[in-house]
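Quiz preparation item.
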């Protein structure tokens, strides 16, 4: 299976080299799981970007945003996004105060220009009802901006003294307005011990110490050097009699790391091990958690890694990798929760084979036999959707006499991350993992006509975008340009062809796909941020057993190709394990049986909840079966329904992540099983041509719009509206799905930030109005969807869109599906 990962626990696909060894010691606790490394700079763009369902599961401890009204970017205002952040369990918000300025580097107009801005920002935050959850960061990268702190000693001393004077002035201005202010700094571009010694000495003497120490780790070398930086800093604190202060590495990682599970797990492991907080850098567009969320609600592989990270509970424990503090090597982190009797290991960053040796497995918690469940979060691109991670193996094994459990992993993918869950093994046998046949083929290794191989995202070019195998094929811009992939499949059948691509054309672009020279099909690729910002296009192919040549040739515009994956299509059911769900109350973790998922069951009683993150590839109806011993209740999108155990329900899910809550008076819940492909049977649908338009709103024909037309010119006046009428068969909670497009931007002249903007629309149904945010879709011809829970009355209902003060998005279609449909 070329490019595939055989199930862990087998010997298939072993290499000639001995497996790497990663050791986990469950008897060496490091302290409670902190979840400090899951933050992002400009991770939120607007309220709803990303969605609540994408944000809440990650349990983010800190984010960094600009002050409200700041000119650095068009959105991402700290207080504006704070409601969404806090209602989804967010911790604290770092306010990058100098982002009040428009230019980068910040225009240097002198401290006298900055101080009134500091006063204004502080007054606004101090008046916020959640002011205690904001952190003031007065200076951003001062060694690079406004002050020359990395030069020769004589210059350094002059610039140092100037900065320290300004630090004290600004610090005291903030405290004069907000006496309880939490202030962070000095926030340099990297770790510079010469300056930190002087800074801390001065700040202690003048009583202006920050409450949080911040600096940036923005090179591949940080994977090697951070541990030394951290140790040096803590030693410096002890020497000076300071702290220990809370640390926030409030910018970390490069473009080649973001969205890539195998890269990100290396960063997360070193920050969590040292119990520091950390925010991923902002290299591109706001509102996608630094490249982990597709559109507003769709997970990619990086999102699933952070979801796993958020699922760690108890204490982290010591992990010994094959090579410590080494760039791009196998690294990991692990946790042990004695109350849940679970151990989890997250690892990745290296290709090949590995043995994960879990030592000191406590018999009183796990017994003599355990189940090891292994899953993979693969790289799917920055904008490529990723279904719930594939379970690769469920292995029931005895704990060795020396207290160890060894989990063999074979054929690891360098860009993937892996999770191992250890639970006590009861009676019975876990269901065998069903891993469909899959193979991957790199574009640079295929036969290329009229194209160029480019190298991307290497250690030497760390801020280049990630590419599979660090190479892609671009400049496919001549009439003869094509890439021919020679593939081989094991049997006749339907295969999903996934193309990792970039579309720089500024509109949907096409290629011509032919199989063995047959008449070509047209493949349409949605726009991407740029030609290296990977997305994924999936389409079905009927192939006979044997070898084929798949040709992707230039269509109406240029498309860059990175890799194709072929996967045998199966009617798979995703089983979401109850013992790995988010829980509240005091449920009992029952491992008396290893049947099914192998991870036991969750016993729910009154007051207990289990929340599942359920993926849907598209908007529509899915079959959901609670594997339970008794009646349960399911809640989704604000609706609830009783559920009979092991009987199917028909639920309307939105594309991407859906949070389903399960409660019960008393039932043992093993899993939530989900299947289907998003049926639209029973939905209410209206196209743009069905709308009654007022004011400047108008019907516009478009070959790209669903249904062939859209409502344009909507909003920017109270009189410009679009009204749809739908007839609901019964009253209740529905999901309104809006197909929309827009491409609002504001170019601030930054070399690397794409300053996209969101639009909003007021949606009124039955006299109830709510504002809905619509993220930029990269072009006016690309249509995305947003799902909005609404209540309909039986019979005729009007759904009205408008925006009295700004332009609303173009709207092509709406659909409404009752959340709990007929089974």
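Solution:
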């Amino acid at each position: 299976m070329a490019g595939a990962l055989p199930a862990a626990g087998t010997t298939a696909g072993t290499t000639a080299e001995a497996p790497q060894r990663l050791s986990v010691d469950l008897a060496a606790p490091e302290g409670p799981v902190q979840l400090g490394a899951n933050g992002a700079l400009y991770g939120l763009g607007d309220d709803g970007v990303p969605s609540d369902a994408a944000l809440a599961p990650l349990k983010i401890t800190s984010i960094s945003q600009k002050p409200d009204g700041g000119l650095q970017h068009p959105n991402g205002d700290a207080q504006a996004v704070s409601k969404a952040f806090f209602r989804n369990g967010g911790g604290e918000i770092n306010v990058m105060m100098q982002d009040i300025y428009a230019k980068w580097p910040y225009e240097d107009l002198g401290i006298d220009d900055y101080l009134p801005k500091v006063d204004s920002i502080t007054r606004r935050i101090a008046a916020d009802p959640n002011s205690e959850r904001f952190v003031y960061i007065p200076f951003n990268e001062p060694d690079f901006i406004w002050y020359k702190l990395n030069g020769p000693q004589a210059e350094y001393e002059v610039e140092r003294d100037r900065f320290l004077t300004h630090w004290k002035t600004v610090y005291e201005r903030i405290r004069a307005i907000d006496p309880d202010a939490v202030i962070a700094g000095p926030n340099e571009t990297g770790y510079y011990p010469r300056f930190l010694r002087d800074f801390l000495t001065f700040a202690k003497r003048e009583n202006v110490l920050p409450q949080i120490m911040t600096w940036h780790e923005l090179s591949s070398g940080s994977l090697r050097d951070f541990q030394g930086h951290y140790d040096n800093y803590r030693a410096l604190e002890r020497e000076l009699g300071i702290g220990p202060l809370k640390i926030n590495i409030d910018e970390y990682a490069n473009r080649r790391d973001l969205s890539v599970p195998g890269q990100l797990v290396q960063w997360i492991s070193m920050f969590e091990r040292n119990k520091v907080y950390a925010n991923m850098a902002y290299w591109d567009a706001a509102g996608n958690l630094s490249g982990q969320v597709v559109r507003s609600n769709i997970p990619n592989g990086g999102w699933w890694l952070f979801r796993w990270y958020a699922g760690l509970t108890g204490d982290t424990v010591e992990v010994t990798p094959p090579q410590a503090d080494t760039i791009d090597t196998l690294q990991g982190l692990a946790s042990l929760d004695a109350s849940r009797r679970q151990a989890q290991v997250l690892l990745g960053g290296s290709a090949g084979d590995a043995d994960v040796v879990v030592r000191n497995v406590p018999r009183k918690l796990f017994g003599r036999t355990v189940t090891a469940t292994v899953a993979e979060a693969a790289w799917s691109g920055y904008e490529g959707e990723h279904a719930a991670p594939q379970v690769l193996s469920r292995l029931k094994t005895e704990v060795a006499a020396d207290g160890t459990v060894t989990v063999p992993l074979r054929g690891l993918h360098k860009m993937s991350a892996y999770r191992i869950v250890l639970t006590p093994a009861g009676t019975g046998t876990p269901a065998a993992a069903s891993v469909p046949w899959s193979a991957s083929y790199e574009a640079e290794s295929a036969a290329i006509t009229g194209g160029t191989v480019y190298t991307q995202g290497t250690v030497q070019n760390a801020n280049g975008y990630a590419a599979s195998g660090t190479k892609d094929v671009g400049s496919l811009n001549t009439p003869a340009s094509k890439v021919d992939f020679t593939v081989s499949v094991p049997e006749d059948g339907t295969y999903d062809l996934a193309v990792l691509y970039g579309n720089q054309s500024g509109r949907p672009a096409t290629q011509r796909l032919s199989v063995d020279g047959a008449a070509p099909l047209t493949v349409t690729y949605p726009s991407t941020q740029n030609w290296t910002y990977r997305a994924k296009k999936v389409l079905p192919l009927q192939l006979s057993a044997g070898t084929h040549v798949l040709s992707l040739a230039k269509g109406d515009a240029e498309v860059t190709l990175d890799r194709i994956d072929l996967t045998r299509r199966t009617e798979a059911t995703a089983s979401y394990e109850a013992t790995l769900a988010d829980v509240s109350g005091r449920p009992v973790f029952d491992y008396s049986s290893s049947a099914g998922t192998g991870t036991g069951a969750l016993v729910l009683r009154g007051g207990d909840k289990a929340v599942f993150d359920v993926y849907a590839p598209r908007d529509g109806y899915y079959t959901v079966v609670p594997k339970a011993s008794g009646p349960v209740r399911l809640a989704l999108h604000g609706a609830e329904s009783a559920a009979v155990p092991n009987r199917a329900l028909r639920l309307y899910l939105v594309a991407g992540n859906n949070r389903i809550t399960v409660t019960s008076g008393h039932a043992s819940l093993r899993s939530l099983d989900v299947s289907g492909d998003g049926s639209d049977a029973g939905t209410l649908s209206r196209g743009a041509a069905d709308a009654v338009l007022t004011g400047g709103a108008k019907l516009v024909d478009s070959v790209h719009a669903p249904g062939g037309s859209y409502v344009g010119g909507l909003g920017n006046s109270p009189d410009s509206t679009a009204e749809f009428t739908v007839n609901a068969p019964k009253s209740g909670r529905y999901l309104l799905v809006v197909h929309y497009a827009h491409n609002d931007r504001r170019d601030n002249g930054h070399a690397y930030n794409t300053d996209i903007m969101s639009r909003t629309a007021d949606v009124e149904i039955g006299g109830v109005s709510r504002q809905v945010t619509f993220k930029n879709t990269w072009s006016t011809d690309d249509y995305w969807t947003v799902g909005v829970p609404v209540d309909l009355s039986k019979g005729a209902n009007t759904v009205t869109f408008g925006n009295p003060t700004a332009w609303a998005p173009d709207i092509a279609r709406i659909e409404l599906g009752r959340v709990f449909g007929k089974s």
